[in-house]
Amino acid sequence: MIFTSEAFIVFAGAFFSIYFFVPYRAQILLTLAASYVFYGWWDWRFLGLIAGSTAFNYVAGRLLAATPRSATGRRRLAVVVAVNLMVLGVFKYFHFFADGLLNILEALGMQTSTSTLRIILPIGISFYTFHSLSYVVDIYRGKIKAEPDPRVFATYIALWPQLVAGPIVRASRLIPQLKTRKRFSFARFLVGAELVIVGFFLKLVIADRLAPIVDNIFAAPEAFSGLNVLIGVIFFGFQIYGDFCGYSLIAIGLARIMGLNLGRNFRRPYFASSFSDFWQRWHISLSTWLRDYLYVPMGGSRGGRLATFRNLSATMLLGGLWHGAAWTFVVWGALHGAYLVVQRLLSPVHRLAEGVGGATHRGLVAAEIFGVVIAVFVAFVFFRAHDFHEASAVLTQIFAGDYAFVGIQNKVQVALGAGLIALLVGVEAGAEAPAVRAAVRRARPLRLMMAVSMLCMLALFGAFAGSQFIYFQF
Amino acid sequence: MWKKPGLVLAFLALTFVVDRGLSAALGRLVMASNLRVAALYDGRVDADVVIVGNSRGVHLASTEAWSRTFCRSVYNLSLNGLDTATQDVLVRDYLERNRPPEIAVIEISNVFEHIPMAGELKPFLGDSPRLDALVSEQQGAIFPWTRISHLYRFNSEYLLRALLFLFRPSDQDPEPGGAITPAIIETYLGHHARFAAHADNVRILAATLEALRERGVKPVLVLGPYHPAAFREVDWREEALASVKALLPRDVTIVDWSSALSEDAAFSDPLHMSAQGREDLVATLAASPLACAASLCPIAVGSGGAHGPDPRDRVTASAVAKVAPQ
């Protein structure tokens, strides 16, 4: 089920009309049942997979709790992590590795036959696997205790607002919140509703408005001028931001209404002045997960420069592969790894520039922001492209130098897309200033008007064609 | 302030007021614009020749050049993606609200497509019961939302176009397209190898023709020019036109202009003419029997002027003969 479907309106209406009026036991069971309905709506056959994964990690957590930070615990943790990664590998990466192996065998002149086995990717598997992994690792590290109540643990894994596309919430944050009965809070409802409205605005007005133009251009980049393709790449940068940040905000807002705090997942990423700053603003729950469960265990920045570069590159490479079983995602991750390495290499220059004051400093920061955005958008070409041929065609067209504004038939839609992006950038530029943020937070009538404006823009410019969220595929 | 449930009511009330107020204002703006559909529903069109069709109809004519050449006022009602059912509604509404033209030139490519587009005309809901009924039929899922939010009626590209044509005197000139390239041709061939008529579309077209005739309008069906690449893999025209003819009244002629132009410069893609192509077409038509075949004889050429005898009787162009009535 997706948030932008009519079925979801009925689902959410039914859920909230019961949720606040039942005692704790019924509340947690209702949340769990609703989560399974929400997930099964897409394909009920995979309910068994999520239930099996939940049962396995519940038992694993109990076993690990008995042997924290011991040799036995380490062996158990290795088995548990391996099983989780194996399930993820079978369902998400089987074709990637199988096809790769076949290509290698064929290159060596060996006869191969392609498998007829086609495995469907269960929606949200990457997200709930990462939930489980953080849970068992944190138990092993002694940071949290194993959850004794299977209903609470199962609800933590499957909580419907964030089940299929995150944010990836740690057990230490969410499980304690699931252990008490939630009562309706009007203040919480308003904050949650505000987030939901902003989320729908980002998804339906920004992302889905831009999507047809982007799809059109990426489908046949050779048929468009360099300027058109450049527009397509810029639009994709904002499409994916609107799509994913929109989903996150809807999820966080709905959870807030339920009385749960999932934390933030985005913080105006296109105003990052460095690549490390970007990853503290983009998909925060994933980047912090990768930091805590991959980068730091690999040694982080503790082993000298070369080791740090290796750890950064490996982390981002695996982060790319997490997004999808394709070499284009690997390249996307590799590029971000390279960006982080280059940033570290240039840090002495950056420190010198920091010493400059006044307008020059502001100009340098603006240049850094612009540079980060350009690099991020170049990497997004690989993220969006289906293969290297498509990515190469896109980049070739952009750098070929033909900047006539011809090829795109529907210039009115392009103008609207550009206007919406300008609006978004303008609002976020304002929100970058702490004084403005504080003033808006206090000016509640202004927030009311902004919510009304966003609803009106949803009605006027929302694309209600029932598109999927991009991050569902991950 | 946030703690009072009255705030939700205030929010809903404010949303309702803004929705109704802004939609009323937008409605006035749209109707005041020079958008062709707005002019139609406002009863402002007064033309001797009306052109109707989908994007190929949009790009078929420079109305100014046609008016100059054929000495008749020409108005293009074509819309991108116009399907036959929506076309039927527009034609009937046109006839009710404007002076019926002498000739309606219908570019028939939309009988080959079956993509409903009435929903895009949401800004005109309430102005036409026919359109209301069609949107309700074609897009039943969205129609109720247009009752809840009047602003949602303006969730259409036609709002943007109307705002644009508030400041431009006419929307009759198609946007200039780019030059056709081998990549564009390859992309096109990947999507359209051949065309075939949908029987339902042809039946609706027949009803439109009947409505035109009842109001004394002479309907002229044309198949506009295609780039030669459109027939490179298979020449689908004869079969497609024959299937259209089979479902139309026997006295209806389809004038085939599909091969009227062949130069690359005349096209921005295999389906749509460029500005150069539109100029070339009108010159070609004026210098050949093809215009007369469509009852568009230039006054200097025709024997009886705009209201003279039907010059089509004299036409022997093979393109016409190919699809002449049995």
What topology emerges from the helices and strands here?
The complex is a heterodimer of chains A (474) and B (326).
Chain A: H1 6-19, H2 24-40, H3 47-66, H4 71-107, H5 125-140, H6 150-158, H7 171-174, H8 186-219, H9 226-258, H10 275-279, H11 284-295, H12 305-323, H13 327-345, H14 347-354, H15 358-384, H16 388-400, H17 411-432, H18 434-442, H19 444-461
Helix pairs in contact in A: 1-2, 2-6, 3-4, 3-5, 3-6, 4-5, 8-9, 8-17, 8-19, 9-15, 9-16, 11-12, 12-13, 13-15, 15-16
Chain B: H1 6-32, H2 36-41, E1 49-52, H3 55-58, H4 63-70, E2 74-76, H5 84-97, E3 103-107, H6 129-138, H7 143-148, H8 157-164, H9 182-191, H10 199-214, E4 218-223, H11 237-246, E5 254-256, H12 275-286, H13 289-293, H14 318-322
Parallel strand pairs in B: 1-2, 1-3, 3-4, 4-5
Helix pairs in contact in B: 1-8, 4-12, 5-10
Shape type of chain A: globular
Determine the fraction of residues in helical runs of chain A and give it as a percent range: over 70%
Major sheet of chain A, described briefly?
none
Tell me the series of helices and strands of chain A, N- to C-terminal. HHHHHHHHHHHHHHHHHHH
Arithmetic mean of pLDDT of chain A: 87
